[in-house]
Amino acid sequence: DKKPCVLAMDAIMDLPAPPEVMKAKKGKNSSEENKSTNSKATVYNPWPALCSFVWAYPNNDFYHITFFQMLQSVVLEHHEASLRLILQKSKFLSRSVNAIKDEPNLRGVVLNCLNLLRLRSKSLPPSAFLHQYLDSHDGWKENIDYLTSLTETQQKPINGEGITIVDLDLGSSYALKLGLSDIDEWDASTATTVLSESSVEGTHDCGQGGDGAGG
Q1: Chain-centre distance of CA 92, in angstroms?
Q2: pLDDT for 54-93, tens place per residue?
């Protein structure tokens, strides 16, 4: 049986994508679908708007904390349908890797989100969506070293005393902060031929984990 939070994610993904997302799709079917949904009051999938609010309210720390917690639940469960809409169709990943270079006000929330994705992908088999999407994303690959460098600087004390190396991998206190305390790195040598559901989907209780706030 699915956990309540996964059922909620499924229900959200049953909602139609908003017009600005749908218009990127080509073909007669998508056009007819848009016409149908626009002909009556429609409740759209909220994820594209939720992603855009990160940029619309760059100084709203409360919203950034809330957004991270929502994203955290989706990422830890590796809810593929939600991840596709958030990262790919809503272009959250592309906008985020650009933001760490060009938008200092957003670095706190963006660094936490990107590192959440980075660490979670390490725990997944190569066939998993998140792992494959990050590996195929040019902006991600071009900026992963910069992401790591910024995160190391963020995690060091201001005076820099006593710490020369910052552990940013799974199993570290930093991973615990992001809510990844019970997730280990994928090891193909110990993986079974047929993956269990828990090896890809999260094993945590929905809504629990690190706060991932601040920056």
Answers
A1: 8
A2: 999 999 999 999 999 999 999 999 999 999 999 999 999 9
Whether the CB-CB separation of 187 and 43 falls below 8 Å is answered with: no
Average pLDDT, the chain: 85
What would the 3-class secondary structure string for the chain be? CCCHHHHHHHHHHCCCCCHHHHCCCCCHHHHHHHHHHHCCCCCCCCHHHHHHHHHHCCCCHHHHHHHHHHHHHHHHHCCHHHHHHHHHHCCHHHHHHHHHHHCHHHHHHHHHHHHHHHHHHHCCCCCCHHHHHHHHCHHHHHHHHHHHHHHHHHHCCCCCCCCCCCCCCCCCHHHHHCCCCCCCCCCCCCCCCCCCHHHHCCCCCCCCCCCCCCC
pLDDT at 203: 52
In the structure, what pLDDT confidence band is assigned to residue 28 with cuts at 50, 70 and 90? very low
